[in-house]
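INFO batch 0412 | record 1 of 1 | parsing
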Amino acid sequence: MNILDQNKQPYDADNLALHIEKALRVERPTQRVQDISYQVVKRAFRPWLIDVENVPDEPCLFVGNHSLFAFDGAVLGPVMYAEQGRFLRGLGDKFLWSELTEDFLLGIGGVLGHPEVCSALMENGSDLMVFPGGAHEATKTTAEKYTLMWKERYGFVRMAVQHGYNIMPVALVGPDDFYSHLMEGEDIPDSMLGQWLTRLGVLNENTRPDMLPPIPRGLLGSLLPRPQRCYIQFGKPVRTAHLLGKKPAKKTLLDIRARVATQIEEMLTDLLILREEDSKQQGLLRRLLNL
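INFO prediction complete | emitting C-alpha cells
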C-alpha cells in the first residue's frame, strides 16, 4: 500500500502513520542507488567537505541553503553517507510525493516534511536534513543566488528544541551554478512562452510568478547540470538540549534561527571567495564545460 491513494490526502492521519512506519524501516539508503549517486556526484562535482569535524557524533538536524532546482540534497546526501557514514533523512515538500516516487524517495532517505514525521525520526535518533527556504529558494533568480529566503520560517527550530536536537548549519556553493538562466521564472507569464503556456492551460490566474522556475541552460546548452565543483562547509553546532522540556518564547526561537542563518551566510561568503581562488587550479576542459 502506498502513502497516497485516490481517496486520501497526503497528510491525513492514516497516511501519515503509514508513512512514518515505512520511513522508520529504512535504516540505510538503497545500496545500488547510493553507489551510483555517489560516483556521479564525486566525479562530476568533486565535493569538498570543509570543517566536517564540527559535526558532533550525536544526531543532528542539518540546515542549509537551498539551491536552484534543489540539487543540494542530491549532492550532500550521498557524500555524507559514503564518506562520513551519516544517513541524512531529507524533509521534502508534499508535492514530491506520489505513487510513482514514494519508494524511490524513501530509499534515498527522503521523508515527508511534516512535524509528526520529523518528531518520529528525531525520537528514533535519525539525522535529518532541511532547507527552510523551500520552493522559494529552489526557484530563485540569478540575483538571488546563494542567499537565504527563509521569510519568517522557524519551524525547524521549534522541532529541534522540542527534541533537544543539535542544529548543524551547512553552506553549499556550487549547485546554484549548475545552470544559467535563459529566462527568469517571474518573467515567463509576460513572454511569448507564457502566452503559449496560458493557452495550453499550464498557466492561469492562480499561477504565482514568484514560484515559477527559470528556463535553465546547463552543460553545453542542455538540461544536464554543469560540472561545477561543490564546496560544503559545516558550521558550529547550535545546541538545544538545555531547552528540552521547556516552552521557550518566540524571541528565543527567532534568536536561534538568526544564529543558524548568520553562520550559513558567513560561510557562503567565505566559500565564494575560496571557489574563486580554487577555480584557477581547474583544468581547461572543466572550465570550458562550465561556460
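INFO post-check: The chain has two domains: 13-179+227-289, 180-217.
INFO record closed
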